[in-house]
Amino acid sequence: MEPRRPALLVLVRHAESARNQAKKGSVYFADDAARQVVRGVPDHLIDLTADGHKQAAQTGHAIRERFGVFDYVYTSGYARTVQTAEGILGAYPSQERDRMRVRTNIFVRERDPGFAYDMTTAEAEAAFPWLNEYWHTFGGFMARPPGGESLADVTGRVHTFLDTLFRDRPGQKIMVVTHGGTLRCFRFLLERWDYQRAQRWPEGQTPANCGVTTYRLAASGEQLELEDYNRVYWTVGSATDGI
To answer: Are strands 8-13 and 72-75 parallel, antiparallel or unpaired?
Structure first.
């Protein structure tokens, strides 16, 4: 039977970014001092930290040893995913790297964080006093940050990306370097989660920077099955939450 899905799909969250470091896992910045390094820098231009570059390089050696050469490597085009992919691919000798096609796909970008992107916790609470109750009512999958996207919105574009992948890349080996929120949307679709399960990451399952999640084609050729989740190969820095 001809495969109807990629033979291998490897999803990698980007390495530690400057905003990860500044926010330390919080939704907003703790105070004005915490945000100064990245204030005014749009999300798509946020760079990796020095530790982030090391995480990507270490992860690259492990990925090459475990999976070999990919047919296609996709990034969101955001600086932190492009730099992560470059670090990973740096582990491959030039003759192997030249065989892999690297592409940008806007459908796998991070969720739009909205108007509170550069706010401190105190500023966000003052500007949106109703937000906690709204978020509690609708939950972390359906609720939209003011001016931004819900994860349900992001799932729509991830669905489009997967449809294209399934149509154009059957039987091929694919790596996607993406974002934490977007990874939850991939899992929702590929593992057929219900809404309740998608509300928040299960305990201990928040994706680490450069965490590697692997799906392989089932024997039927019809479905990608989860093989490994959030495997970390690096030994520098710390795993951080957020975008």
So the answer is: unpaired
* Separation between Cα atoms, residue 176 and residue 107, nearest integer Å: 11
**What single-letter amino acid sits at 197?**
R
Q: How far apart are CA 29 and CA 124, in angstroms?
A: 10
The mean pLDDT value of the chain amounts to: 95
CA distances from 242 to 46, 67, 117, 161, 180 (A): 13, 27, 12, 22, 7
Please return the burial class of 59, using the count of CB atoms within 10 Å of its CB with bins 0-12, 13-18 and 19+: buried
| Other beta carbons within 10 Å of 111 | 24
Q: Across-strand partners of 224?
A: 217
**What's the pTM?**
0.95
Q: CA dihedral in degrees (234, 238, 231, 52; nearest 10)?
A: -60
Q: What is the pLDDT of residue 3?
A: 85
* Burial profile 180-201: b = 16 or more Cβ within 10 angstroms, e = fewer: bbbbbbbbbbbeebeeeebbeb
* Residue pLDDT, tens place only, 120-168: 999 999 999 999 999 999 999 999 999 999 999 999 999 999 999 999 9
CA distance linking residue 79 with residue 45, whole number of Å: 5
Give the pLDDT confidence of 98-114 residue by residue, as tens digits. 999 999 999 999 999 99
Burial of 131 (0-12, 13-18, 19+ CB in 10 A): middle
- 51-to-126, 211, 231 alpha-carbon distances in Å: 34, 14, 18
